[in-house]
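ugh finaly. both done.
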Amino acid sequence: MNDPLLVEGPHGHITHLHEIPAREARFAVPEAAMHGSLQVRLRELGLKQLYEHQALAYDTAIGGDDVVVVTGTNSGKTLCYNLPALQHALSEPAARMLYLFPTKALAQDQLGRLEELSKGLGVRVATYDGDTPTGQRSSIRRLAHIVLTNPDMLHVGILPGHENWTRFLKSLRLIVIDEMHVYRGVFGSNVGGVLRRLLRLCEWHHSRPQIVACSATIGNPLELFTQLTGRQAKLIDQDGSPQGRRTFAFWNPPLIDDAAPSVKRLSPNIVTSEILATLAESGKRAIAFNRARVSAELVLRYTRKRLDNTGVSPQKAESYRAGYTPKERRQIEKDLFKGNLMVLSATNAMELGVDVGGLDAVVMNGYPGTIASFYQQAGRAGRGAHDGLAVMVAHDDPLEQFLIRQPERLMQATAEHVAVNPENPQILSQQLLCAAHERPLNPSELEAFGPSALELTESLDRAGELAFRAGMFFYPSHEPPAPKINIRGAGGELVTLMLDGDLLGTMERWRAMQQAHSGAIYLHRGASYLVTSLDLTTNVAHVVPMEADYYTQAIVQSVIEPQVTIRESESMKLQGVKVTSAVVGYKRRSLDGDTILGLEDLDLPPITYDTIAVRMDLPMLEGEDPALEMAGVHGVEHALMALAPLIAGCDRNDLSSAWYAYFPDTLAPAVFVYDTTPGGVGLCERLFADAGPWLRQATQLLETCDCEEGCPACLLSPRCEVSNETLDKRETLKLLLSSAEGRSRHGVEL
């Protein structure tokens, strides 16, 4: 790709270029019958041929099987469910279809595509979400053939009032789950319960809707489908769509002082803005993906400042993130699609399949967190057979610097597994309360919610949250529990955030102690606020507006108590543990250079919760220098924690860690990496299953870095409770290598 960024740009910062060649389209003709009006409409739109996966998906869906379609970005997955849905609507006018999208923006975008496809066919389509005017909702329930919504609205707005949807549920023939890979962790675990509640009500109304799910490439699509729905499906992963040449550039910001290899690198926000501005100046249309809202705003500010000195109007750059009004977001999408904007600084709110037309380049401001997201974001560059450029700008932390040194781990990686756990006790208990409110629970129905559902339901009965009468479990109130349950959070007590007497938002109590303590900077709808007080007696935090030039990071100290060993192998155990965590202070960090501006103490009560952990036992400290050996144990914790998100396929905040020089039950060193969600969502199970590769890559993290004592690119962590004191790279390597050798001697796969 003859891109000026690569031809004329500062080559010293591009550490690796990788090219994926173009791919020709493969077409196929469906064998199943298709309504004549639908065939005519496809020809009118110029869709004379279907890609191989589209034709196969149509045949499988019309044949009655549940389907999971796993193909790349811009491969035309929407036709895989739109065609069967329209076929149902045309051949059976009473049939109804329900589409689920993870965001309202995506539902609105898909509504436009579906309206264009169904024009003249007499099929009524509509969105039903929080933005739908109250006066229109009744007619949508009665008349729409296809309703587009999101899991949040299904959970809180449709299922609790299912009596209003009786006709729709009786005639429901097809459920679509788009962007299935998004349903991971706590959100995915809750969605598993919401979907089981929906299917239970359908069964009560004597309907059994078929399910078509679409996903980006992940390692366990059929397993995830079953965890979300309780059903089995057929997999279609033969991508027949064409693809232009893809060029991947790995970009490492320069060191501020080349003579000192441990000093900070130039801010990736600044580097990302310079790349965006360079692309805009050369007439290229691009989008930058940022991991945080504040980064998206900073990149926009820096980009506009640079464009102000060029021939490109600064207004050709814009930002896009959660918190904008639907009208604002639709306008930005429209401007980008029409070419009125050259570059966009966005969060992953734009990662999903919102159609913004063909973009020339994508800049990833940091590793997105998963292989699936990496390719999903990169896939927004180029469209169809057009070439595309994807640039990843590395941050100065061990995981991203490891990927910069070994980019083949991204380019040759198989997609990771998506971890969910619908049987998480806290999550499932809440979903069972919702199900019992919607309709009394018969014990025979509980099997669909998982093996532990009956025991949990009985415990809810003993606690007085359910009542067992006449062989059924009843919810003892007319007020629905669903509005009190945030399906994108882990549950528990909620803290209310108040601004001048008005409700600003809510968050779980355990999360509030880390993110809404006194002195914390809280981000909401694109604005920043200073938390002036947190009252844990009333569960209320008060905030005031503040444009801060820093962010805050809680300092958390944790004590681990093993409860039960689930599985074990050489030196590794998968354990149920009790975690007692206390927020003992916080750091104020600069937005640009990540410099620590100050440390403040906090006195907050500890919280205790049960979760799942991977435990690694290390040899007893018996050398001549116990302090040096302790530094090695601490280093093992840092190295394992740095690579854990890559292995588990999760966000860094989904896991935490702790280390002990003398763990009480063995009086020997131990390192724990644990799931921060109470009850766990399957992340540590994945780490334990891949313990060999995890140890090997943690070793390579240190071996591939040129430093001698440990640096931000391999061993130092910005999250360290003791500010990276007591660390030794050589001793850490010695312990990792001996652990790997021990597993090898005992025949454990590495």
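ok and the 2nd:
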Amino acid sequence: MDTTQFQKKKQMKKIKIFIVGLALGASAWLSYGFADNYFELSKNLDIFSTVFKELNTYYVDDTEPGQLMKTAIDEMLASLDPYTNYIPESKIEDFRFMTTGQYGGIGALIHKDSNKIIVSEPYEGFPAYNAGLKAGDVIKTIDNQSVEGKSTSDISTILKGQPGTTLKVEVERPTANGTETMIKEVNRENIKIDDVPYYGMLNDEVGYIKLVGFTQTASKEFIAAFKDLKDNKGMKKLVFDLRGNGGGLLIEAVDIVNVFVLKGSKIVETRGKLKEWDAVYAARNEALDTEIPLVVLVDETSASASEIVSGALQDYDRAVIIGKQTFGKGLVQQTRPLSYNAQLKVTVAKYYIPSGRCIQRIDYSNKDFKGKAQNVPDSLIQAYNTVKNKRKVLDGKGIKPDILTDKELLSPITRTLIRKYYIFNYATQFALENPNIAKPESFTLSDKQYNDFVAFLDDKDISYTTKSERLMEELKEIAIKEKYFDGAKSEYAALEEKISKDKGEDLIKFKTEISEFLSNEIISRYYYQDGRIQQSLALDQDVMTAKENLSNLQDHKSILAGTYSKL
């Protein structure tokens, strides 16, 4: 028997062992409460195992059984909902990071500009920062291996690893006279990203807490911040920011709501196909403060646990919700162990907040002819009442804020300057030329500094297409087809010229908007993440609305009572 035949026979033996194991595992599972579906399930498992065997044996090119199986599993789960996922052993660390906020690494953000891998931001106090890496450093090699041709995902994987191990990172740093190459030794550590990255006082009375995740330490961090603001900083009112928070652990959401509602209050209920997933989660501890005036900020990306918190506080008429309609994720996931250290994250239940509503926006069992899941139709949306004051609230659409704020859209030029990293690169140059700046809350970009930025852009490509230009092009195509264009050529050319001229003045027209982003990036070079947040709060429209609401407690209370009417 030659080597090729031996390898094929060996591969066939592995496949047979795998299929037998799959069948045995399936039969054990099927015998546990699913007898009614036994024939249908066993038939399809048999078909699948046969297809898998025939493909691996007879397909014209060599196949990778593991990759084929993963593709089959991924596609099967994708037909259900986006939250039911297969997690192979190789991705367990990423999954663990989602639940614990911890990973072994250097604590820095990176991005790719052209073909260069660049340090976006080292986290203050973490290994990259301690080793002297700075925003704007271009990574050349890691442990003498070139990063050329690699993606940010590839580099992120390389930088992560066992805490206590050391990396040699060669970087090229911009200097006043060009660039300087240096090697930094970075000791990997157990990195824990704080769920509360920032808290502080907005004025003499109003405190602010930003929560970005719901990992295992979320409630502990939130309670510590709340106590510090109240006991040591004189907080009498609170703005609680859940914008951009995509959720996490349900029990952490329960414990945070518990800060503001009485012990024993029902916060969330889960209901699933199996009775084991039916559960009621109530406040387990004594409340810290049931009276403090409270505003919760949310947006379109506030989801899951964020919606439990904001929804429960709304249902108990405990907080005024301000911002944008939330994402609408009312599904609960559980992880199930699989063979070979893999995991299955599977949707097992829906959750219902105190009023009785489920805020799930998309019905994944209802898909159109293209296979796209549909929103819960308006005809099935139901009204509920809040627990205390019987205000009307709706299910099926996420959490609707009590005060809706306008969505702030960036101008095309600002988006271009951010996307092409011109703002980032200018901030790097600015930091080289200015060793110090004012504190975040008082730093402002001078007219001279803004003009320097405009000069910095002189040799840069800042071309972009505005919505007006796209509509103009569409109009031209339609007019040509309908044979109207020849008679309107001069008018079209004049309008085109006018739009082009006005567009050329966008750096002046949108100076205020661009300056805000430029200032924020510059501040991050000196004051890191805390500085970014402090500077942005002073210009944040939602925060301003929250402060205004809390400054007039009569309006605040009337919104919660359901008696507010704006004249």
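summary for the 2nd one i guess: The chain has 18 helices and 23 strands.
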